[in-house]
């Protein structure tokens, strides 16, 4: 049994501080860090999400007068669709799906 080192990284709003081309590097570096420690990233950025080993979608909805949160794992085509949504919005296009597939196949940006 090999014990992993624990790290804590805090970053608010990646998109305001890091340019798009650098986000690919951020995602890959976080993936490398994941080989030594547990990494949990909450992101709306496809470049970071595509590098993850596991992908969860967090959502919330009103049920009556209560707000209910939901967390679900996405894999396969559902993950492609989610990364495509992160790239291009609610309307999935052939282009956004192809870009998402390429990003996921390469562990980040195509």
Provide an overview of this structure.
This protein is α+β, with helices and mostly antiparallel strands and 110 residues long. 44% of the residues lie in helices and 15% in strands. It has helices at 14-17, 20-33, 46-49, 76-88, 94-106, and strands at residues 56-63, 66-73. A two-stranded antiparallel ribbon has the order 1-2. Strand 1 and strand 2 (66-73) form a beta hairpin. The longest helix is centred in the first third of the chain and has 14 residues, at 20-33. The termini are far apart. The model has no long low-confidence stretch (mean pLDDT 83).
In helices, the fraction of residues equals 40-55%
Most strands sheet: 2 strands, antiparallel
Shape: globular
Terminal residue distance: 35 Å
Q: What's the Cα radius of gyration? A: 15 Å
Q: How do the SSEs run, as a string of H and E?
A: HHHEEHH
Broad structural category:
alpha+beta
Residue stretches low in confidence (pLDDT < 50, at least 5 long) are: none
Q: What's the arrangement of strands in the largest beta sheet?
A: 1-2
- Oligomeric state of the chains present here: single chain
Strand share of the residues? 5-15%
Average pLDDT works out at: 83
């Amino acid at each position: 049994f090999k014990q992993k080192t624990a790290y804590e990284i805090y970053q608010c709003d990646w998109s305001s501080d890091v340019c798009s081309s650098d986000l690919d590097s951020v995602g890959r570096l976080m993936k490398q860090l994941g080989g030594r420690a547990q990494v949990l990233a909450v992101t709306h950025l496809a470049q970071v999400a595509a590098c993850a080993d596991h992908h969860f979608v967090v959502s919330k909805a009103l049920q009556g007068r209560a707000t209910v949160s939901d967390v679900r794992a996405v894999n396969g085509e559902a993950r492609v669709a989610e990364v495509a949504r992160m790239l291009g919005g609610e309307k999935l296009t052939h282009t956004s799906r192809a870009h998402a597939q390429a990003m996921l196949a390469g562990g980040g940006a195509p």
